[in-house]
Each structure stands twice: as structure tokens, then as C-alpha cells.
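Could you help me review a protein record that somebody else here produced? Here is the record exactly as it was handed to me:
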Amino acid sequence: MTSVSSRQVLSLYKRMLEKATKFDNYNFREYSKRRIRHGFKQSKNESDPAKILTLYNSAVNDLGLLERQTAISQMYTFEKLVVEPLKKHVRHA
């Protein structure tokens, strides 16, 4: 059984958050980010190597799911919601 380093876990966390920001729909994007943060916070004090490996492998599977879902999300367009910040326009003089 191999162990998972904290560097690998942090890298996975960052990749998952990065993928979650790719959702075109605001609600999906924010929900995914919340769930990722919550899941990693819940598991941060885990010390059993076998449990950590199980959690890590589960998160890797979830990353694959995120990649597929964000690709599908980008195929469809959604109107921006009122709560979403608008992109700033650059004035040309």
C-alpha cells in the first residue's frame, strides 16, 4: 500500500477547485467549490493512512467527474445571473 503525501493532496485540492471554476453556470460553480472545500476540511485531521488513501482515490475519481461535467457545461450557454459580477469593459481613448 502506498501512502499519499500532503503535497499530493494539496495539488489535488487545487486542481479540483480550478476545474470547479470552469462551470459556466454560476450555481453549479459555487456549489462545486463549496462541496470541495467542505469535503477537504472534513478530512484534514484524518491520520489513518488507509483511510487517507481511500479518500484520496475517491477525490481523484471526483476530479474525473468534474472534468467531464465542466466539459459538458461549456457546451451550453446560460444567461448570467444578477449575482454574478459582470466583466469590466476597457475604455479605448
Summary: The chain has one domain: 6-73. The chain has a mean pLDDT of 88. The two ends are 63 Å apart (CA to CA). The longest helix spans residues 49-73.
